[in-house]
């Protein structure tokens, strides 16, 4: 007996469940408060590094790897997202956790920086990427820390 195909279109409730599965993927979040855009990028990098490997940041530690990164975007929120995603790509490609950076140029639409990192074989959390709506960035010019961000990462639960 052959199976019968009743309809080639997926049922409405099935399509709805597929989109809800996206929200069930494992996620990790960090919060960053900074007094300037430059401090926001540096603290975001440092917090992401400490999420990849706890207590990794040590300013006196030697550097195994130096990479140059240049990213452009329409606004600072998208710039931060694209920058951190590019750093994550480099992290997985070179098995390096980038803890610090020297910013050569930073505007609302562009960052040009050197990343300094250390090689690692095993990560505490294997962050994959920042999803489309994974960053909330608030710029309150009246505050002591005018840049507040909340960053959510997709990650692999099995290392």
TrEMBL record:
Calcium found in the keyword field: yes
Domain Archease: from-to ranges: 28-123
TM segment ranges: none
Keyword Metal-binding: yes
Any Pfam family: Archease
UniProt xrefs under InterPro entries: Archease_dom, Archease_dom_sf
Keywords: Calcium, Metal-binding, tRNA processing
Family statement: Belongs to the archease family.
Protein name: Archease
Source organism (scientific name): Maribacter confluentis
Origin organism lineage: Bacteria, Pseudomonadati, Bacteroidota, Flavobacteriia, Flavobacteriales
